[in-house]
């Protein structure tokens, strides 16, 4: 943006005013139908002095005409480059003035010709102009435009993602069958002063959306600062009608040439005044802002300072002894458009203070005249967070400190920190880093602190949701970090709440534990909403990871849900392939949000099924545009859920059982719950032996009466299960891996009997009298003696 300097009557320079901004709705280039009435809208134009929407003092003048000469700027998907419009090639033959929008008929214009409409906006001594190229075609093509969602300043920040969503007007919008995004970069002018545009190759490498999606997201740090680009969208309907829209984009130049440092290079926590300073950064887009950030040993993010001051003096928390007490900082310098210079990495050695010894730590923190109490009274969250994090890190390293003393310190810090107001994202990072550090020891934290912490976490999550909806480029990089901090806090509350709910401290206390868990789960859902607030449909899914809890968040077009795979932690969901079945349950929604949660422990410890949980706990929510849950049931195909079982304690004994040919050896399996998966590992020791396996519910199987039978050899395993409707038919599954377990689903609790029969394929037993089974259906000529059942086997048994 140019800045105009004017001289006042006293000979001194007047206040400099920025250029006016002229904008025509629809973009730089569009396709419109012949014989249609076209409305040109300039209401988005503005004076930066007064902001958008205020047209006071603005004058609008419109000019229209056609392009003459050899103009090659009609963009098609096949072109790798084209020449921009030269003002000398435009023949203006009409004008309007005084209105922010005009409407004119194209009936007198020629089809397949190219026209230009120019808007000139004036105010006081300033003037700005913009033009729109119009290609006329037969029919009523869809009227396509682009709406910026994220990074929408006059000059965009190359260090923040750019999100654009297509919009459509007209009766043909519902018939659009294809989208195609093309990106051009402007290159230095040719000798005749024409502007050259070249297609950016391999656009998919810098986008996080498919190029056939109705939206596009260009990844952060993919564009060069100080450049001009053009983003074009081409669509086609099922009837072959084309539509297009092109927008010009300018990137801000990030600050350059400066340095950042921290002095001294080593010191003592809560004693040494460290000077964090940046200097000599140059930019045309001032003022510059400075961010000094670090990450705690437990993974939580915190902020020393964020603002316009280039120098900050602060205490620092101690580093980890295993890393020579090193504390690492990331410094970011950003201009007014949100364009950031490459991050500057600094490190400093910070040793623990004697003030934080196990003997002194409590009095240092809680004394009436303590520094911590003073900064709390002053409302200085930044200093309070530095002190609190230093104390909490020291407490976590004092392994001999009494648990009651730890709880007392945790309670005091939490009560103090939650009393301070959170006004911005840096405040949120500071406050949540303290709360997360204070409650990470779930065995010592008190219920009172958990309740206070959860209340503060809920308030911060609501604040994050409100901030995320604004899509400010300065906040977007910090939203994910904030979500990870809040997720870490909620992970601790879930874990502590689960322990309380399963304890023996009385029903009242157990109910408090349940409340902590159920409330935390609701807040986790809102954290996901906040992260997705700046997403567009079909953008790459976002992972939020803490030391335990993990979230996978996505926003999808309804027609892209079929066979969608969502992974998080060690688990995975796969939605059914039946598109109609899914979409029919999502009426009038332009997108669907998916929130997958993976927790490596069971927070629902009060439920009577807790003993059955032997894997991560997985959850998947589908939400509509209003953040309401979408109920999905009675699908024609199942949702596939994949989660590995956790390692189980298996007896070191590897039992071996012997069977004679034609003898059935029986085993009993006691199943306590509905729908229990039984896994059997059965392998013969000798290659000449085949094993026949039979299973039956409620009574011993026979070779003719069973619910499952299998054949196992050294080289192969085959399992046959009778059909529920036709016991003569069934399903057979074979595997060349004999170690693959035999799996069957026990649909009801009770006793399941297993019979194993061996057959020696090489034994010369053809001359032996065949011994009859006691449980076959053949004629019995003698009595049989049954063998007493062995002890029940575990559900995963080796035989």
UniProtKB/TrEMBL annotation:
Domain REJ: 1-605
Record has Membrane as a keyword: yes
InterPro entries named in the record: PKD/REJ-like (IPR002859), REJ_dom (IPR014010)
Keywords: Membrane, Repeat, Transmembrane, Transmembrane helix
Location of the protein in the cell: Membrane
Stored PROSITE patterns: REJ
Top-level taxon of the source organism: Eukaryota
GO BP term (any one): calcium ion transport
Residue ranges of coiled coil: none
GO molecular function: monoatomic cation channel activity
Protein name listed in UniProt: REJ domain-containing protein
